[in-house]
């Protein structure tokens, strides 16, 4: 069921939600949290689809905040709120409210969202792209217990990790970190089978992929060993190699789907390690609402402590030195007879 509201208010949106629930025969609220998505028109469809799929595991009220930037100065002064209410099969297992904020209202999104939050339920804010430098200090982020960003969607993912480290507040997390959960689990399980200490490690993956840096920093932070970051053609993370005194542990995934775990003295094992979609990543993050201290320690470790963290820059060819110009001949000295004749 869909209800379109033009030039509306938060109070009318709440009334529409109640009316829609009664119309489909579910007057009770059975949702466990409020998920606020801050996005734009271009990415709204994909974000809402991922959130709807995740809501099958976590029934929630999804509030999409879309800020419509006005072009003319007169339009920017006019504040208007348009909304779309979705309940039932159109909203997964919960409710969806799409808010379009026009004009000056776009700068006060928190005043529109606050009356729509579920009472006595956790609030999670997700920025699929264009996350603020400090999510906890953002007006919408300040309403949440959990704040989700995605460094992979940033223009410069490597720099984005440094921004996340500088502004980290308990409750922050990033989908680039969530993407490496299966890798961390598999590597930790492999180390449980080895009594020898790891002496060094190498993480291989495509460039401009923050998950590779996070995995390398996690290994360096937890194991206290030097970790080198190397670049491959991808997709995503492709291999991790850990050197131990008993031999090498290698987790290799060349195709983004099936990995091979190789350990000294044991047969190679095939491991399902497929790349997950955004809905799966989001559902994982919604399972926990407490601060992730491991992520905090990892992101603060710093990419500058990794070896070979970026592709080496090609040196500019040095032009060949031009041959030195021959010195100009010195003017001939006048003879004494000519000097006397000139006097």
Topology:
Layout: E1 2-5, H1 10-23, E2 33-39, H2 41-54, E3 60-68, H3 73-77, E4 80-87, E5 95-102, H4 109-113, E6 123-126, E7 146-149, H5 157-166, E8 172-174, H6 175-178, H7 181-192, E9 198-205, H8 210-223, E10 227-231, E11 237-244, E12 247-252, E13 258-262, E14 269-272, H9 278-285, H10 293-299, H11 336-342
Helix pairs in contact: 2-9, 8-10
Word description of this protein:
This protein is α/β, with parallel strands linked by helices. 29% of the residues lie in helices and 24% in strands. It is built from 11 helices and 14 strands. It has an 8-stranded mixed beta sheet with strand order 1-4-5-3-2-6-7-8, with helices on both faces. The protein has a 6-stranded mixed beta sheet with strand order 10-9-11-12-13-14, with helices on one face. Strand 11 (237-244) and strand 12 (247-252) form a beta hairpin. Residues 309-343 have low confidence and may be disordered.
Short description:
The protein is elongated and about 70 Å long. It is built from 11 helices and 14 strands. The chain has helices at 10-23, 41-54, 73-77, 109-113, 157-166, 175-178, 181-192, 210-223, 278-285, 293-299, 336-342, and strands at 2-5, 33-39, 60-68, 80-87, 95-102, 123-126, 146-149, 172-174, 198-205, 227-231, 237-244, 247-252, 258-262, 269-272.
